[in-house]
Amino acid sequence: MSNEYMITEVKGLVERYLARFETLGWNRFTGFDWASVRGELLTEEQLSALRTAMLVEDHIPGYSRAYHDLFALTPDLPAAELTFRRAMLHFVFKWTSDEDRHAHTLENYLAATGRVDAEALGAEMRAAAVQPYRAPHPDGLQMAVYTVVQEKATQVFYAKLRDACAEPVARQVLDALSQDEARHCGFFSDLLRIYLEAPSGVDLAKIKEAVVEFKMPLYGVLDDYRRRSILMMRAARGYDFRDAFGLIKQALGRFADARSDSRTHGLAELLEALDSRAVGHVHGRAAAAPSSAA
Prior knowledge:
Helix content: 55-70%
CATH class: Mainly Alpha
Radius of gyration: 19 Å
Strand content: under 5%
Shape: globular
Order of helices and strands: HHHHHHHHHHH
CATH topology: Ribonucleotide Reductase, subunit A
Number of strands: 0
Number of domains: 1
Number of helices: 11
Structural class: mainly alpha
CATH superfamily: Ribonucleotide Reductase, subunit A
Oligomer: single chain
């Protein structure tokens, strides 16, 4: 999708994001006092949650490849599409660099706890990393919907796990990761807004498909995914990834308020699908009891 509106809006969004955050960051090696980590302060559930989060983040080569394919630059594409894709790739390179740093930082932290066998962890990482990853959707709009939910859910998970941990360095690490994910979610939320406001209209059926089919990354790839996801919810008290669907509902609410024509056809059905997936509500009411992150 690359009309003049999309090109102008996306280029502006990417440039604003990079202007604000290009040099904002922290060092995965020197940003934390690894020698002061008190691993004994972590519960077994918290240690398991950190390990699973690291494996999910460490699959970044697969995620990165999926987005490089989504915005691939090939000679058969018209100039407008190439311009749009190149603008998106500026963001993708920065975003995937952040996510790679998350995986490496969590690996550094786990090693510093003294409670994880490095050889076993390395074997587990290699086994997970070589599993093939396929993007859940071939469409930019649907991937924007997917990534809003995924980034928001991850940000909330890190924040709630931070609050549950008594180990000081874990709290610092998780706070840094949560802030990164919040910035990423903000970008994809703005990107979704651009899609919704495009003069050419938006395909609500595609949004509904992305909502109904949503699964967190590496569902069906990691061994014992259901058990791992339940442990993550227990470790990060109050976390449930389905709360993140509230962001999509907010965006669609603004879209509905701004439109009175046929573009809102099917909106009620889409909002119903969102309600069936969401646990909490748009204004932050408490989530239901933990369940599988399937």
